[in-house]
Structure of Kynurenine 3-monooxygenase:
Amino acid sequence: AAPLPATEPLTVMGAGLVGSLLSLYLARRGHPVQVFERRADPRRAGFQEGRSINLALSDRGWRALGGVGVANDIRQVGIPMTGRVMHDVQGNLTHQPYGHEGQAIYSVNRGHLNRRLLDLAEAQTGVQLHFGQQCLGIDLKKQQLNLLDTATQQARTVPYTRLFGTDGAFSAVRGALQKTDRYDYSQDYLEYGYKELTIAAGPDGSWLLEKNALHIWPRGQYLMIALPNLDGSFNCTLFFPYEGPESFAALQTPAEVTAFFTRVFPDAVPLMPALEEEFFAHPTGSLVTIKCFPWKYDDDVLLLGDASHAIVPFYGQGMNSGFEDCSALNELLEAHGDAAWPTIFAEFQQQRKPNTDAMADLALYNFIEMRDRVADPRFLLQKKIEAKIATQFPGRWTPLYSQVTFSHTPYAEAWAAGQRQDAIMSRLMPHIQAEADFEQPAVQALVQQEMAAQA
Ligand code: FAD
């Protein structure tokens, strides 16, 4: 397509988290933007959010929100979580800080964040939001959208000049790209599903578990997590096999659910008065990693967010990486100017693809860490030793979690550094049985040697 005259609208498909933020970025650069979204307007009364009531927002997401001036506003309604609290089967608690003093990830309500971004987008001159518009397909050659009005069930075609596909993991925009020659696509489902449950607020709206933490019940083959909400409740997510002796398939009756939860999550059950009802009323969600390439079609279509890189949720980076897509695109627009779409689309996918691939691997890696390794005292000791190395060698050892969560280091670099650190720790840890061993001359000599080899 030819460079876009400023009067021609850019088209965004999908007004979820990434689409609403992207439309704000594009509109702030002076582009007219039209947004189509399958769902009804989530700001209307009675709207039911489909999944994950709250999300962990971290530095990459904050920076992207900051770029359109909305970070402070969202921070007001976020709850800082400074670390993990692990709950063992006896109800004993172990704390593990996420970073250093003052660092936190934030529990943020998905619906609130989406509505706030939509409000801001609508307040921008030039953004037109169209709800109840489902994309059925795209004619890439004719540059036409096939839209269904979900209220009237009328189908129509709408032309586009430049289309941004932010319509999520099962993107219809990507579906059109997939039909083009030599298109790479893969989807991998975990044999696990997830179920959302609730830890109720105390009678006075207080938090019945430590508020400023992400709670984890690691159980080896499965886990439950809980993130705090502003009203005193916690949103719990059980990540659980579909099949097997301990699985969704094995829990068929309310009595089986209660017996199982009482056995494996005994400290949580008394705080979950609606457990049986919610377990059967709430859907079981699936967990998928989706990779594809290219993310663009000529300089007409570009995919962002889950549409191009859906990942499993165990690092809390799905939304954050999608938001980082928006700030990365904006940086390219800044660098090349708003008419240089061919260069911008090409550079965007070239820059982002290796990083979101690394993030997909990291998310799977963290699944094992969260469900299993955080319950292992040796692993927790290793994390303490890593923190000591980080203090001893400022700027030369940033723990992997911090690189992913509290930095803007490209994900692929973070992952490579994390793998180097893992290798070092596997050589060091056999010499360490307790925290104090770190100070022993022989251990210090090894640490110095390893760090010198890194330099
Ligand atoms: P979506 O949020 O899926 O939005 C896509 C939008 O497109 C939707 O509004 C949809 O209605 C619309 N749409 C879809 N198809 C069509 C169509 N054919 N026509 C028109 N519109 C369409 N990420 C984090 O960073 N931190 C977390 O803590 C975290 N926790 C998670 C927990 C769970 C259980 C899950 C499942 C995910 C979690 N994520 C988390 C990931 C995060 O939810 C996604 O990465 C994020 O929602 C992606 O945003 P998106 O806008 O790309 O896609």
